[in-house]
Amino acid sequence: MNYSARYPLHTAQEVYGALASRDYWDARIDEMRKHTPNDLVHYHADDAGIEVELHHVLPRGMLPELAQAVQRKDMTISRVESYSAFGPEVTGKYEANIPAGPGSLGGTMRLFETETGSTLRITSEAKVYIPLLGPRLEQMILINLVDLFRAEAEFTTEWLDARR
Predict the structure, then answer these.
(1) pLDDT tens across 16-36, in order?
(2) Distance between CA atoms of residues 78 and 153, nearest Å
């Protein structure tokens, strides 16, 4: 699945500056905590790039019935994102893990300039190793990722707008 977060009024350097800011990550986690428990476990940014680790907890009752059938308790997702140093095109990757989860989720990211601002393009792949249910769960995960990425992009835009 591909998702593009477009920032028509913000340059790639501004978006990268947000991603490199501890204040940005703290504010983003605070916003996410309004919906489910979340924590920023690790943050590091320097001239070589950015790395963050986030923990998201999805209460079992919030999961779709199909996911509840295989997940017997709250789902804790550990997500690690890393970005290269700033340049004409920033590359990155992410991995999301569910302890004892029957699959994997990860992808790549590219941040680049556009004529009107910048775009963060995310390519994701989900794999669930459960016979018969795997493909349906993979599709469900990817659909929910779009909602997550959209919410994160909206937050980023609002955060950047507030600093203009």
Answers:
(1) 999 999 999 999 999 999 988
(2) 19
Helix axes 22-32, 134-162, angle to 10 degrees: 120
Which pTM value belongs to this model? 0.89
CA-to-CA distance for 139 and 104, rounded, in angstroms? 13
Which residue in 51, 36, 10 sits closest to 164, CA to CA?
10
DSSP code at position 99: T
CA distance 28 to 63: 22
> pLDDT of 103-122, one tens digit each?
889 999 999 999 999 999 99
CA distances (Å), origin 74, targets 55, 58, 135: 12, 6, 22
Three-class secondary structure of residue 115 per DSSP: coil
What residue numbers bound the domain in which 154 lies?
Answer: 2-162
Q: Domain containing 114 — which CATH number? A: 3.30.530.20
Instruction: Please state, in angstroms and rounded to a whole number, the distance separating the CA atoms of residues 71 and 141.
Output: 13
Q: Which residues contact 29 (CB under 8 A, 6 or more apart)?
A: 38, 39, 40, 54
Question: How many whole angstroms separate alpha carbon 35 and alpha carbon 47?
Answer: 33
How many distinct structural domains can be found in the chain? 1
CA distance 102 to 35: 25
